[in-house]
Design a protein that fits this description.
The complex is a heterodimer of chains A (124) and B (147). Chain A is of the alpha/beta class and 124 residues long. Helix content of chain A is 38%, strand content 17%. Chain A has a 5-stranded mixed sheet, with helices on one face. With 147 residues, chain B is an alpha/beta fold. In chain B, helix 4 links the parallel strand 6 and strand 7. The chains are: A alpha/beta (124), B alpha/beta (147). At the A-B interface, helix 1, strand 4, helix 3 and strand 5 of A face helix 1, strand 1 and helix 4 of B.
């Protein structure tokens, strides 16, 4: 019995860990801007996260996208979501003109809840 | 009938090897599953376009009535960093901006504060100004977009 339980526990741990790592893969490592105020995390909403890396390239779900693809993605997301919300994870060195099209597209499609991911003082 | 043979281990010593096995497994489990990333938060944002001033945020009719009173903070890039303008008046730094904004907000009005960064201004600076407006007490802070 004991060796079997050992093996089963190892398998459980392996699958837990590998699923955790699979989740982390979707997070592009970027240097978020710093802020001292922030919203409390709202677990009710399922935002569409748009990553902007240091080269000002937009990513949705690890795929690089351009403006037409962005428009389609936001529109599809809005149609499928009850409480649409867009979360922008941007590198702090990115110039504003790379973020502005994201805000404009969100507003044109009708998503008014746009969030900018930041690091707050407590998390530093 | 033969009585069952019971092995009695009278010693109360704890078996070390299985305990170490379990402790190591737990250690590995927690080290692997813990995330060393700093927790992230969100800043609420919205956009104000040149066409509809103060638009984009929640359409509250009482607030919309005083939409003419909006505050526009311009952020421009210069060689030494960024310069700030509050309704076209130059502002020395973020602390002055915070003081000026909180003085305005103490009058009891809650005008939309629109951050209008130049295209080349980095998001770090834009978010710093955005954050300063929120620290000053503004509850509707928007980013400006060009039409």
């Amino acid at each position: 019995m004991t060796p079997m339980i050992d093996v089963v526990f190892l398998l459980i741990i392996f699958f837990l860990v590998s699923s955790h790592l699979a989740k982390q893969e979707t997070r592009l490592p970027v240097d978020l801007p710093l802020a001292s105020t922030a919203l409390a995390n709202d677990l009710e909403i399922a935002p569409l996260t748009i990553h902007v890396d240091a080269n000002s390239q937009w990513h949705i779900a690890s795929r690089e996208i351009d403006l037409p693809a962005l428009r389609t993605a936001i529109r599809e997301y809005k149609n499928s979501s009850i409480q649409p919300s867009i979360r922008i994870r941007t590198d702090r060195s990115v110039p504003y003109d790379s973020i502005e099209p994201l805000l404009r597209e969100a507003a044109e499609v009708g998503v008014t809840d746009v969030r900018i991911a930041v690091l707050t003082a407590e998390s530093r | 009938m033969k009585a069952p043979h019971v092995v009695r281990d009278s010693s109360l010593e704890v078996a070390m090897t299985p305990m170490i096995d379990v402790v190591f497994l737990l250690l590995i489990f927690f080290v692997w599953t813990s995330s060393f990333d700093a927790p992230e938060s969100d800043l609420p944002s919205s956009v104000a376009s040149a066409d509809q001033p103060g638009g984009g945020a929640e359409p509250n009719p009482e607030i919309a009535a005083e939409a003419f009173d909006e505050i526009v903070i311009g952020v421009a890039l210069v060689s030494t960093g960024v310069t700030l303008e509050l309704n076209q008046q130059p502002i020395a730094n973020l602390d002055v901006l915070k003081t000026r904004l909180s003085e305005i907000l103490q009058l009891g009005v809650q005008p939309p504060v629109i951050i209008d960064p130049e295209p080349a201004v980095s998001m770090a600076d834009a978010v710093a100004v955005f954050d300063a407006a929120r620290v000053a007490g503004a509850d509707r802070v928007l980013f400006a977009i060009e039409e």
